[in-house]
Design brief:
This protein has 129 residues and is an all-alpha fold. The protein is built from seven helices and no strands. The N and C termini lie far apart (45 Å).
């Protein structure tokens, strides 16, 4: 019990000591790792403002937006009907297993199993604004 309390207190101290974590911002290292991890996504998704859709919609400004809301892109009925907002929690679930989160989605991607890699991708996506 005492050890568990020390671990929790130590973890809380580490989070508080990190200015980026305390403000809810990603570290430059997370963003760099996310940009590298995102390379697997670039075959289907653009990341620049005004870029035309590829197989999937552009992801510029996606964080905080409603899912299935990019004008001119034809989304699956399942994703359009899901009424999601792309916040960090929903992006994490989506990146882990899109077809499990929204059965019937057209996104044919198995997902990213590593939680740290998903966190890094989300950190990178958060910079696209």
């Amino acid at each position: 019990m005492r050890i568990a309390a020390m671990i929790v207190m130590g973890a809380a101290g580490l989070l508080a000591a990190s200015p980026a974590m305390a403000q809810g911002k990603a570290s430059p290292a997370d963003v760099a790792a996310g940009k590298k991890a995102f390379m697997k996504c670039m075959a289907c998704h653009a990341t620049t403002a005004g870029a035309p859709a590829k197989v999937g919609p552009t992801l510029f400004g996606v964080v905080g937006k409603a899912a299935a809301s990019q004008p001119g892109y034809r989304y699956s009925a399942a994703l359009a009907g899901a009424k999601l907002t792309w916040n960090n929690a929903n992006l994490d679930k989506w990146l882990a297993r899109p077809m499990t989160m929204v059965p019937g989605t057209a996104m044919a991607f198995a997902g990213v199993s590593d939680a740290a890699e998903r966190k890094a991708i989300i950190a990178y996506l958060s910079t696209l604004k």
